[in-house]
Amino acid sequence: MASGRLVYGIDVGTTKIVALAGRVDPRRGWVEVLSRGEAPSRGLRRGMIVDRELAASSIAAAIDDCEVSGGRVVVGIAGGHLSSFNTEVTLLNRGRNRTITRRFVRRLEEEARRVDLDEDAQVLHVVPRGYVLDGTEGVKNPLGLAARKVTLRAHVVCGAVSSIQNLLAAVEDCGVRVSRVVLEPLASAEACLTEEERENGVILMDIGGGTTDIAVFQRGALSHTDVIPLGGQSFSSDLAYGLKIPVDRAERLKLRYGTVLSSAVDPVAAVGLGGRHYNAHFMSQILECRAREILEYARDSIRGARLPTSLPAGAVLTGGGSLLDGMPELAEDILRTRARTARPRRVRGQVKPIQKPQYSTAVGLLYLAAKNDHAGPESEGARALSFGSIVEAVKSWFRGG
């Protein structure tokens, strides 16, 4: 991609919509954020559109604030309708010289898509984890190599066509065209993780407003993804219920005084807001209970995929929910591995407002927009999508990484 070309990313979250415009230099590996638009999110519940008109209004406000014009956007997708699994397929290469071509790799990916799904479900994303060539393991890029028996090991992500239709419709109601839809934990990983962490093995947890996205990498490849239908909103709602106060007041208390380490809080300590005082220890117990639930869900999801939670690069927490005091320490206790909070890396331009965990997905979308554009016309994900053509186009959105 030419470093001067603008790319756009839109993170359609449960609590806020973030639109970014920027330039990416793929050779130097950094993104320059030129403008940001942000608006409170309406019409969404746990990552999915429940009111198209309200959602479109929120998205339009963020787009106008960012001054997106004349470009195609990359949109992040999350929500409880997503599911994933690992698979492997094998084909015989009957080419004359047995050289593996791009066409042959696409045949492997199409084979990986041939699974039985529910009526509204669709294979969205086939992410290669590695290839085996005539018994030789550990091949990451088979193009140009010779082999007769080729096995693709892949991570397959599925989702509800109706939910994706609703997302596309709401975005395109705002007068922009979607060039690609990206699984949100992949975008967050692009912004926060190093290649060394992916190679060594790492857990990424993006604790957003309505959901927590999980992605596990081993030997540089995506091994597991999951979506937990709990996030920052759950913390605020719990506080509101426990303290018998409005949610907006609970949100302010959470941001100002929230901690998930109740053992470190004096049982008689009090915090004040708006002339009223609240027991700090009781607040921390409420927040810790919900945080434990989220982290235990992540632990059980990873173990259910027959993967260890103790990986060499540990756990990386991002998203707005990761900013609660004590989250890394609690994650270390539950996941039995070291943990840290991460913000987007390699960001220039509007650095101060963007280099925060709550913008990881949006920044990652810019990087993936640049990669998609740089792939050129052979990249099927580069084709513009529209609501009207979604059913036919959905099969090819996520091909490749």
Automatic annotation (TrEMBL):
- Give an example GO cellular component term for this record: cell division site
Answer whether the UniProt record assigns the keyword Nucleus to this protein: no
Q: Which UniProt keywords apply?
A: Cell cycle, Cell division, Cell membrane, Membrane
UniProt KW DNA-binding keyword: no
GO biological process per UniProt:
FtsZ-dependent cytokinesis
Q: Which domain of life is it from?
A: Bacteria
For this UniProt entry, what is the primary localization, expressed as one broad class? membrane
InterPro entries assigned to the protein according to its UniProt record, in alphabetical order: ATPase_NBD (IPR043129), Cell_div_FtsA (IPR020823), FtsA/MreB (IPR050696), SHS2_FtsA (IPR003494)
Q: Which Gene3D superfamilies match?
A: 3.30.1490.110, 3.30.420.40
User: Which ranges carry the SHS2 domain?
Assistant: 7-192
Q: How does it sit in the membrane?
A: Peripheral membrane protein
Compartment annotation: Cell membrane
- Similarity section: Belongs to the FtsA/MreB family.
Subunit field text:
Self-interacts. Interacts with FtsZ.
What is the role of the protein in this entry? Cell division protein that is involved in the assembly of the Z ring. May serve as a membrane anchor for the Z ring.
Write down what this protein is called: Cell division protein FtsA
- Which gene codes for it? ftsA
